[in-house]
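S., here's the first fold you wanted:
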Amino acid sequence: MRKLFRFLKPYKWQALIVVVLTTVQTLSQLYLPTLMADIVNKGVVGQDIALIIQTGLIMLGFTLIVTVSTIVGRLFATRTAVGFARDLRRDIFAKVESYSLREFDKIGTASLVTRSTNDVTQIQNVLVMILSMLLAAPIMAIGGIVMALRTDAGLTWLVGAAIGVMVIVILVIALRVLPLFKSIQKKIDRVNLVLREGLTGIRVIRAFNKNKYETKRFDGANKDLTNTSIAAYRWMGVLMPTIMMLFSVSMVAVVWFGGLRVGAGQTNVGDLMAFQQYVMQVMFAIVMSTMLFVMLPRASASAERVNEILDMDISIVDKTDIIPETTCKGCVEFKDVSFSYFGAQEPAIKGISLTAKPGEVTAIIGGTGSGKSTLVKLIPRFYDVTKGQVLVDGVDVKDFPQLALRERIGYVPQKINLMSGTIAKNVRYGKEDASDEQVREALQTAQASEFVDELLDGIESAVAQGGTNYSGGQKQRLCIARALVRKPEVYIFDDSFSALDFKTDAKLRRAMKGEMKDATVFIVAQRVSTVMNAERIIVLDDGKVVGQGKHKELLKTCTTYKEIVKSQLSLEEMA
């Protein structure tokens, strides 16, 4: 957790106030038993009413100091911990936003969610405990032992014996519990993963009547977490009763042996009462430390997981903030490009070389898993190539600042993703300062105006999370409008017409032809009808280019393309 203490720097003055207030509170508590002993030994025995009233008022004053310092200290401790957690979540989110897709693939979305929420909460809770209790516990324990020695050194061996037994109990349980708490956080990841899949895939689950299967799957992950938590808290359940038993036995021993000493005239009743209070304070300090110990192993495991996010090296970083000089606006070139996903044994694409120029449409087609989407994801540098070069505007994409590179590209992903808000807000994701007129123009080109204009609020109509209040084809057209409003140098349509009927598809491509006449266009598609009019068709098979040319040329020269065409078109359409 030490690495995370840097997030406390903005709150150092608040933390210092907590330290001062905690010290005042603890020292005041330590002085109260001495005043009580004076009342009993001098006031009650000597029947000195004035002394009793005077000392009682002093005790009330110290009690007031303890109360105020405790309340204010807890307030500042809570504010510090909550602010710390807020800053930590902010930095985690900023770090995750800078990840390339390789880092997302490595950690997983479900784990990132758990680490950003549950793990940060665990650290926040233990920080409150540290500020509230960890500072007070050693002062109270050491001060209590010193004051107990000063009050009656003959009984101090009882304190030492009780502390020794407590420390042994705590260490034994710690060795058992720490591995279990580390395991709990990983199993929360698993529960989060299964729950997230169940919620996002609810349509598929119901379509295939897999409700019972998914319930059983979640129940398995949930029971695994439950059993591990029970095992951990079973040990923790033993801890507190054991501590309280030792606490009670110690009090009985103090009264027993203290009574013998009072009877023998070796100590006073007031001193015995004060000694008993000091022993209680020492034991309470250990109980506070134990409560912190209950939370510390889990928080420690959470801190390791958070640090893993913050310390992870990002595979895609900018070499410089300077935008390089370009030689060909809109040109895209692949030079002997190969790429492998994280943990894959075989490359997804191998030895690909091609050039795309402004005013041309380059279509990419091939079977499932042939590497079509992988290829176009290398252009905006979502991944870095394993071998070779990808050039945009005549410059290696690695030499561009990522922001400058992606400003040149309008990307429509294979997986449709809309944000909650309005239609206008989603379209303006492509260009923040786009006017309403530009938004409507983009929607018109994307063939989305026909349904947007029928909505009550038009472009200000609401979009639910993920765009669930629109059909697949409507969402696809909104995503296309988001790319069109940007008017970039390079357009990438990654299987972006699959949800459209043939009529809308044809109208859309005709409208886009004039819109993108000066841009470089990449279209990844499964439909032959979508790509057959492209200036260049790239045919991929098993990550390799097996054909390149126009539709009629490929029918004669590329067996793979011919098989794809045969599976979709009639002989007349092929001709």
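And the second, which I think is the more interesting of the pair:
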Amino acid sequence: MRAVLHKDRVKARIVRHDRKNRPEGRVTEIIERSPNPIIGRLLQESGVWLVAPEDKRYGQDVLIPKGATGTAKTGQIVVVQLTEPPALFGQPVGRVKEVLGEIDDPGMEIEIAVRKYGVPHEFSDAALALARTLPDAVRPADKKGRVDLTDIALVTIDGEDARDFDDAVYCEPAKVGRGKGWRLLVAIADVSHYVETGSAIDVDAYDRATSVYFPRRVIPMLPEKLSNGLCSLNPNVERLCMVCDMLVNAKGEVHAYQFYPAVMFSHARFTYTEVAAILANTRGPEAAQRKTLVPHLLDLHDVYQALLKERGVRGAVDFETTETQIVCDDAGRIEKIVPRTRNVAHRLIEEAMLAANVCSADFIADSKHVGLFRVHEGPTPEKKDMLRNYLKALGLGMTISDEPAPGEFQQIALATKDRPDAMQIHSMLLRSMQQAIYTPMNSGHFGLAYEAYTHFTSPIRRYPDLLVHRVIKAVLNKTKYQLPTLPTPGEAEAKLSKRLASRVKDPEQKPKKATADQLAWQAAGLHCSANERRADEASRDVEAWLKCKYMREHLGEEFGGVVTAATGFGIFVTLDAMYVEGLVHITELGGEYFRFDEARQELRGERTGIRYAIGTRVRVQVSRVDLDGRKIDFRLVNEGDELLATTGRAMKDKTGGHVSELPAQERGPSYQTPGKGAGKRSGGRNSGGSGVSGGAGASSSSRSDRGSSRSLPSPIQALKAAVKKASAKSGKAGRSQGKKPRR
């Protein structure tokens, strides 16, 4: 292993299996060296220059010859290109390719992340030159063949910090059939008019596939002239758009729809907070400033309620999640982490966008044109079994069928929302589902309960939406859209392609041979899906780095928190006040043997019966912060009090008594399902055995997943002995002074 580095492609041979039947191998051949540069800190030790990689998966320092350091200084973060790969008896050698700056420079964590994950962050000279030739405003020639909607009161509703506006909405009452209904217009920026297929801007946009959002910075998919200017539906200026014009009936069903290119004029730029305030009080100061537009907002709210009702009938999964927002100061340091609350305005826009996306998918499917669908499949057989076992272990009396519908998940969520362990149950429901991907093979969207779904509403920041716009335009013009020649799929695309191979539900049914056109669309879908994952990983990496740096200032402090995951090697706890997650390793849980119950997803102490499951409330102390590893370690405090509080209940468990109530520390907060955090932990989640013994004084740096229990005295016995001894001393002192002993 000394001769290889992270990301190298190798051939390996399995030589044996360990005691847990995990295969162990030996590298037999190095097939391909990774071309990726290494980011790290330049150091000088005993006159030798070397770079310590920021990504610890590389495992070896890189030697830098004296003349290859460039202008870099000791301690700076640099980008290194390898000139000699590692060998069995020699370290890798490289040269400094780029100097990023000091580790404490504002935004350094973003500079590291974009290079670490290979996120394209600089536009090509050709793309920038082409962007400069684009006009600053809509020209008369651009309006030809478009519907004029400039007199329609279309408005944008976005967050306070939004800079690009790619969707506008309008609603008015309308007669649908014989009943009442609404006409709902969703206007989306017409990016495809300015970004031609195969142009320099298009090549860069495809390479990025999505905009990447970091705290205080965005790496856009399109040059700023387009994303914040010409394609952004800014207020009080004309803009080109593609419109999904829908008729929605009183039941919330889309009765009819049509697509057409148009020119629009945004009558206002609303924020979610402002719209929520207007809808809550139509006579308030916010409503008074927007008097002419208030009736249209009320119509939007009416159609939203109808769409929401139809969502319930459809049985779409709708879990409330808590997302967080990192607030930074001018130097890029975290000031605070606050929950990002969703109000009625967020939901209103979400339902309007869902309706437009469904119409887009239906339009493409009906036209028989190949395009990209947003596919979300139901749970795999393994995940279904895991969820059934979990629900059975809880004694819930509810389960899922062999071919579950989304409504079954929603019914379980609704039936358990008032339980003290609701967070745990809803988290398990979320984990049983798969990730959505882009693919030309439509198999529906499980979570939203749609037969066909795609992305149409964000072409400024998502390349699949741009492709959908081009397909819709081609269908309207009775032509066929041809994808440009695409580069060879990379490693991430290859991994995702395995999921496409399992699309056929009947193993005996032979899949049809894909045409060259379908293969090209498959490659485009894989590329966009892989780069979506890449963007998420880079964003999470930066957020984890900022949170670690933030928590370094709170070392030794105590906080209340809730368990958000239980594993074989410990529990993950999210702090109440800071929304920061860290690991309490199993060696910090107390002096007894803890066993991981996979069915219940909890750790249980064998002596005391104390349990740590999702939703359990704990108090922890920040014990260690690893900035390089992006990990935060906690340790439990007031451990003895917690053990004493559950002793009686644990004794009942051991004597066969029935415990109808959850222990005090398991009564979680009111229903609050983790969003992003459910499957994104700061430590390795797949290591560890079914049970590990732990000593309260064990060091967090010497953690291991041992499989046998230490012979330690029971904590309860030790506490009782201490109380008895203190009581005896107190009584003796009292008697010597002629006083009654304290009790």
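Why I say that: Residues 125-377+434-503+515-540 form one domain. The chain is about 30% helix and 25% strand.

Talk tomorrow,
H.
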